[in-house]
C-alpha cells in the first residue's frame, strides 16, 4: 500500500492501539478527530517552516487585466476580482508575461513598498509587487498581464474526517504517536503516557523533516529568513 493512500481512519486505528484500546471503546473516531487535526496542523506547520518540497506549488496562469492593482484572497471572489489559490501559505516568487502570448515568464521584484513613481505612471509591465493586507499588490500595467506564483501551500485545507485521504508520504509515524499523545493528555489525562508518546512523535518528526531537507541539499536556492530559535521544538 502506497503511503500516499493513508486515511485518517487508519491513523486513528493505530492511535487507539497505542492507547490499549484497539476496539476504540473510548478512543472513537469522533473523540480522536480533533486531536488528529491538531497533530496534522503541527506536521503541516513543520513542513512549511522547513520548506519541505511537498509544500511547494506553482499556480496556473492568473489573468491580470489592464489597470488591476491587486490579487485578493479567494474569499473576496466576485466580478472583476482576481484571486490567489485557497491553499496559499507563503509566496516564494512571482512571474509575469504579456497575456495571450507564448512569451517566457519573467521574474517580478518584491518590495516592502511600491515605488512611488508608479503612483502616477504604471508601465508596460507590473514589474514590482508587495504583500500587504494579505493581498498581492502592484501598480497595475497598461497591458494585460498573466502572473504565475511559486508558493508554499497548505497540505490539507479542510478538517480531516475518518474517510479523508491524508496523502502525505512518511507522515504515518508522527501522526500515530502525536494523535495518541494528545488523546492521552486531554482525554485519558495520563501525562506519563502522553510524555512517552510525545518522545516517539518528536523522533518521527525529526526523521520525516530530515528526509525532506536532505533531498533539497543539492538544490541552489535562496535561504528563507527563519530564526534558529523558531526551529526548537518540544511537545508536552
Overall description:
This protein is of the alpha+beta class. The chain folds into two domains: 3-54 and 157-217; 55-153, no CATH class. Helices cover 31% and strands 17% of the residues. It has helices at 8-18, 29-49, 172-186, 191-216; strands at 56-58, 62-64, 70-71, 88-98, 106-107, 109-110, 128-132, 135-137, 145-153. The strands form two sheets. Strands 1, 2, 4, 5 and 9 form a five-stranded antiparallel β-sheet that branches. It has a four-stranded mixed β-sheet with strand order 3-8-7-6, with no helix packed on it. Helix 1 (8-18) crosses helix 3.
What distance lies between the first and last C-alpha atoms, to the nearest angstrom? 32 Å
The largest pleated sheet is described as: 5 strands, antiparallel
Provide a count of the helices.
4
Give the overall form. elongated
What are the low-pLDDT stretches, counting only 5+ consecutive residues below 50? 223-232
Radius of gyration: 22 Å
Structural class: alpha+beta
Give the rounded overall mean pLDDT. Answer: 85
Helix content: 25-40%
Count the beta strands. Answer: 9
> What order do the helices and strands follow?
HHEEEEEEEEEHH
Strand content: 15-25%
Total domain units: 2
Amino acid at each position: 500500500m502506497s503511503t500516499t493512500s493513508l486515511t485518517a481512519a487508519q491513523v486513528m486505528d493505530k492511535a487507539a492501539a497505542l492507547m490499549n484500546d484497539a476496539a476504540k471503546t473510548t478512543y472513537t473516531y469522533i473523540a480522536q478527530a480533533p486531536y488528529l487535526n491538531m497533530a496534522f496542523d503541527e506536521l503541516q506547520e513543520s513542513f512549511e517552516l522547513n520548506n519541505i518540497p511537498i509544500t511547494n506549488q506553482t499556480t496556473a496562469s492568473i489573468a491580470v487585466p489592464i489597470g488591476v492593482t491587486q490579487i485578493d484572497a479567494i474569499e473576496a471572489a466576485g466580478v472583476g476580482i482576481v484571486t490567489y489559490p485557497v491553499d496559499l501559505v507563503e509566496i516564494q516568487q512571482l512571474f509575469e508575461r504579456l497575456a495571450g502570448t507564448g512569451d517566457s515568464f519573467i521574474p517580478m521584484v518584491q518590495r516592502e513598498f511600491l515605488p512611488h513613481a508608479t503612483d502616477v505612471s504604471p508601465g508596460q509591465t507590473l514589474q514590482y509587487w508587495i504583500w500587504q493586507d494579505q493581498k498581492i499588490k502592484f501598480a497595475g500595467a497598461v497591458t494585460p498581464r498573466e502572473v504565475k506564483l511559486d508558493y508554499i501551500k497548505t497540505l490539507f485545507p479542510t478538517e480531516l474526517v475518518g474517510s479523508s485521504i491524508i496523502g502525505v508520504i512518511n507522515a504515518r509515524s508522527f501522526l500515530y504517536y502525536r494523535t495518541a499523545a494528545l488523546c492521552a493528555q486531554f482525554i485519558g489525562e495520563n501525562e506519563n503516557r502522553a510524555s512517552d508518546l510525545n518522545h516517539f512523535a518528536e523522533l518521527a518528526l525529526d526523521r520525516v523533516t530530515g528526509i525532506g531537507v536532505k533531498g533539497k541539499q543539492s538544490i541552489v536556492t535562496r535561504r528563507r529568513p527563519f530564526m534558529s530559535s523558531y526551529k526548537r521544538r518540544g511537545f508536552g
